[in-house]
Specification:
Elements: E1 5-11, E2 20-26, E3 34-43, H1 46-52, E4 75-83, E5 95-99, E6 112-116, E7 120-122, H2 129-133, H3 136-149, E8 158-161, H4 166-178, E9 183-187, H5 192-197, E10 202-205, H6 211-214, E11 218-223, E12 237-245, H7 253-259, E13 262-264, H8 274-285, E14 293-298, H9 302-311, E15 317-321
Parallel strand pairs: 8-9, 8-11, 9-10, 11-12, 12-13, 14-15
Antiparallel strand pairs: 1-2, 3-4, 3-6, 3-15, 4-5, 5-7
Helix pairs in contact: 3-4
């Protein structure tokens, strides 16, 4: 490997995790308003395996046009290695993290990645690069929806379905901080101790009890699962209650209207924002919120990391370690 190349994980065809290849590729060069980040760790997110599979979960007419070879990954944490000009706003040696070029693809599974300067925030000193790389997409998904779109400022009981996952465990903590009178975590039984430690007031094991039987008159429900049975959550909400969906689901809009439930689904997308991430960084820096790790894999084992991610039932996030 020369100074002009780097190690990265690329796919040359769409398919199963085995299409992810650890190989030498050209090192990118930052342009105006961009920085080159020496990546220390890269977070894994659902859009990464959607990309790997050729977006086969999206209707053909809506699929992004993208041709291999391509490097997946949007969440990175690392050190600024070069700047694309005086307008970059960062200095060589700065420790940064970010959700890069999203919605879009940032080539984060690599030793170096180019990022728009505005997509980055300063990494909290209290966090290592592994923990920082776990935050951006999941944290911004919860933060931007609850605070930027809904303007959430507390209220009655708030439910998080899929509370142990990446978005879920951070949404739970943000709801508690914002003043929800009761935060109810929904997950499988093995996650109860973990979620209570993060601040859940009540826990519902969905494998034993349907959510709508265990919860009534909720003010807000954050569903990180979606799917064809998502409409079964509707009776858990009070009339005028709000349901926020992270993934696509069948929420039966006509039934929601009958119950007086306000749906927030299908019209919003998390976006890169260094300024929003800086607000999250302040909460992470003093321990008001914490990020959990399900597993850490070397960059060369990205395929194994994807296999674990697609199994589901994750507690926190999965991260690739780029610098050993």
């Amino acid at each position: 490997m020369t100074e002009e190349t780097m190690k990265a994980v690329r796919l040359h065809a769409f398919g199963e995790p085995e299409v992810l290849v650890h190989e030498d590729v050209p090192r990118p060069v930052p342009g105006p308003g961009e920085v080159l980040v020496r990546v220390h760790a890269a977070g894994i997110n659902p859009p990464d395996w959607y990309l790997r599979r050729g977006f086969d979960n999206i209707p053909a007419e809506l699929r992004p046009v993208l041709s291999p070879p391509v490097i997946p990954g949007s969440d990175i944490s690392g050190v600024v290695a070069a700047v694309g000009g005086p307008d970059a706003g960062w200095n060589v040696g700065d420790e940064v993290f970010g959700l890069v070029r999203f919605p879009g693809f940032a080539s984060g599974y690599a030793e170096y990645a180019v990022a728009p300067a505005a997509d980055l925030a300063r990494k909290p000193a209290a966090l290592g690069h592994i923990e920082a790389a776990a935050v951006p997409m999941a944290g911004l998904t919860a933060f931007q929806f609850l605070h930027k779109r809904l303007g959430y400022q507390g209220g009655g009981p708030a439910v998080v379905v899929g509370a142990a996952g990446g978005v879920g465990h951070l949404a739970l903590q943000l709801l508690r901080l914002a003043g929800a009178r009761e935060v109810i975590a929904v997950a499988s039984g093995r996650h109860e101790e973990f979620l209570r430690d993060l601040g859940a007031d009540r826990f519902v094991d969905y494998t034993r009890t349907p959510v709508a039987e265990a919860v009534a008159d909720a003010d807000l429900l954050v569903d990180t699962v979606g799917g064809p049975e998502a409409h079964r959550l509707l009776p858990a909400l009070r009339r005028g209650g709000r349901l926020v969906s992270v993934f696509l689901g069948d929420y039966r809009p006509e039934r929601a209207a009958e119950l007086g439930v306000v749906l927030h689904e299908g019209t919003w997308q998390v976006r890169s924002s260094g300024s929003d991430l800086a607000e999250l960084a302040a909460l992470l820096a003093d321990g008001r919120i914490r990020v959990a790790l399900d597993g850490v894999y070397p960059l060369r084992e990205a395929a194994a990391a994807h296999r674990r991610a697609e199994q589901g039932h994750i507690q926190g996030k999965i991260v690739l370690r780029v610098v050993e």
